[in-house]
Amino acid sequence: MTVEQDGRQVSVKVALTGAADAGKLAVLRGIAGRYGSATVREHAVGPLRVHRVEWTEPGALPDGRFLNVAVHSLTGRVDYNAAEELLLRAAAGVVFVVDVDPMKFQATWDSLMRLSENTRRNGYDLRSVGIAIQYHRADLYPNFDPAQLDARLGVPPGLIPRFVSTSRVPDAEGMAFDSVIAQIKSRLDLADDSGG
Predict the structure, then answer these.
(1) Which of 33, 78, 85, 157 is the most exposed place for a label (fewest CB within 10 A)?
(2) Over the stretch 47-86, which tens digit does the pLDDT of each residue have?
């Protein structure tokens, strides 16, 4: 998190991560659609596409500052850890998007392990940021059971907020993203209360 020099604004970055073709761009567009002036921007970096959307939250924080939010995601096959490391650098929150297609479990597992390794190698503690898991495209798999996927991924019940979205409503009313923003705001309040 960075606080601008005038102290009136707080800028935070949220990383939308997950395996290639997990639906991150659809989720990002869903998030952007909730903010009338927010537009998804795309930049090419080799075979990867970096997508981002930015806006200022409509209401002020309790201390009167405004919250600027930037959400970044990568699409395409990530062949080098450096791309994901840059995505995670200075992130105040992470939404891990999972395509619930059982045939994509290995790609999801590999992405989760890469996320864990990249954060550990760079001294980044996922417990210090807002985090949520979004199980996506559940409508396409009628037998999908979130608790079973939690167990397969090794996600302890109740530890990380998790939400389920459909292919028709990829943002799931913004629940995963809103959870991460609420966690970030809570950390900002705690930092203010402790004088930091």
Answers:
(1) 157
(2) 888 999 998 988 888 888 899 999 999 988 777 778 888 8
CATH 3.40.50.620 applies to domain 2-193: no
Tell me how far apart the alpha carbons of residues 87 and 105 are, in angstroms, rounded to a whole number: 22
Residue 168: CB atoms within 10 A of its CB come to 9
E-strand ranges in the chain read: 2-3, 9-18, 41-45, 48-56, 66-75, 93-99, 130-136, 162-164
- Amino acid sitting at position 44: A
Query: Strand 9-18 relative to strand 66-75: parallel, antiparallel, unpaired?
Result: parallel
The residue with greater pLDDT, 149 or 84, is 149
Residue 194 has pLDDT above 70, yes or no: no
